[in-house]
Amino acid sequence: METDVLVIGAGATGIFTALDLSLRGVKVMVIDKNTIASGTSGHYHGLIHSGARYAMTDPDSAVECSRESEVLFNMAPFAMNDTGGIFIATDDDEKYINRFMDSLEKLNINHREIPLQDIVKMEPEINHNIKSAVYVKDRVADPFVLLGGAAMLAHEHGCKFILNKNVSAINENIVKANNVDIKCKYIINATGPYADKIAKLAKIDIKDVMPTLGIMIVYNKIFINHVINRMRLPSDGDIFLPFWNVSILGTTAKLTEDLDNIVIEEEDIKDLIEEGSAIIPDLQNKNYSRYYYSSRPLIRDKDTRKSTRGYTIIDNDPVITIIGGKFTTARLIGEKIADYVTEKMDVDRQSITTSQLLPDPYSLVSNDSISSEKLIHGLAVSELEKRLLL
Amino acid sequence: MTIQFTGSFDIKNNMEGTRNFLLNPDKVAPCIKNLTDFTKNQDGTFDVKFKIELSSDTDGGYLNMINAKMKFILKDGDEITLSGSGRAVGSRISVSIIIKPVKIDENNTKIEWRSTIDAGLILKAIGNDKFEKIANKIIEDIISNVAERCNL
To answer: In this complex, which of A232, A234, A271 lies closest to B62 when CB atoms are compared?
Structure first.
């Protein structure tokens, strides 16, 4: 098999890079050891940030999130739930109120203060002993629907998909996956927390990936109408969101060394619920149905060793490794990577992803007679795979 | 891998007053900056929960503020030993602080201290330099609070 660009990893970064390149007329192939959005991207909490969460700590990211949330909503409104979000300041968060408000104003992030007496009606279950509440334009996305749609559009524009195949070797411009050899000009390593392992196959040593686990707890009931955030520096257990018919409490930053042997301890869950109780006081008395985690590909900055949710392009021609990034800005990161690759390829075509309307992968399934959402999702994954592998 | 810190500072209090302060969990625990919870246990140990700011405000890091949970025990002797262990960001951490109060005069006491910290994966994740900066800041804050509260 032969292509111009081979993207390894069918998560948010890989899919949006493949979409951007396909729309510019570049011959692209995507390979993944599982399926679309089966790794970190498919296991995150689903929050599409308004930008407010990063307003105090990372103004550039905040502005990008604010802009990209609108772009994604226009591209795939069916993949989103336009819930809106509320930032609440508990007693512990009071010191951040002025800073938070000033940052939102300065960055022009859409927001409005909510009179505290209105919170009781808007969100009866949340902590009402709060000092401030601010409405922002947070949204919730179904990562499979969004990325499935992006993959379908990429496929319509010539992108080929090789799914459920493990990359086992990289020799110069040839990538080996099971018994298939793929010859390409460039290899985009978009495998998130596994980026160092894939790079190693090409004898490239990447030490910058610092995987941390984000644990999420799922409740089979909707307690809230909006995404509820704590008004403080990003920390554990400060996001609670309504994900269609369930509620998700997130998240943590749990350092890990071995991604293949992850143990979630009882204490991790206990600590997360304890933190979440500042948002929903009665949380300790509610039964959760399950928990899950995703591995974040955080970067260890070589100079300051800080961890950041930005992204880095490491070019070891022909292997280009992407580390970091967040789901909300994945389309933008895909555009930047495509800019980088097309410049190397002398392809003079600009990104047009922002003007696209993505197809809905659920349209591949006739769900009139199916009542189980799990079954519909399973069928959609299977039908999507069939479509992409054609 | 462990990191060691040492230092000394003066207290405007006599030897007995200083020792009584340092051996009292009710007085020592609140000296930890960003303390969110403090519980004394029947076995003489005490539990603390506190927050640590890993990144400066402009870092843009995800791990801006982490939670730490630790159990401490104070042991009396010529030197006072404060030992603790716990966890933060899923990593085990342990701390041992040995404090030696030395009489300067009737109203002043010098505190000589040395501390050993094993920060496990946190050290690996953020590196020695950054960890030392953060640990130094935590220690400075504790010292400043102890000095302020213990001074007569």
So the answer is: A234
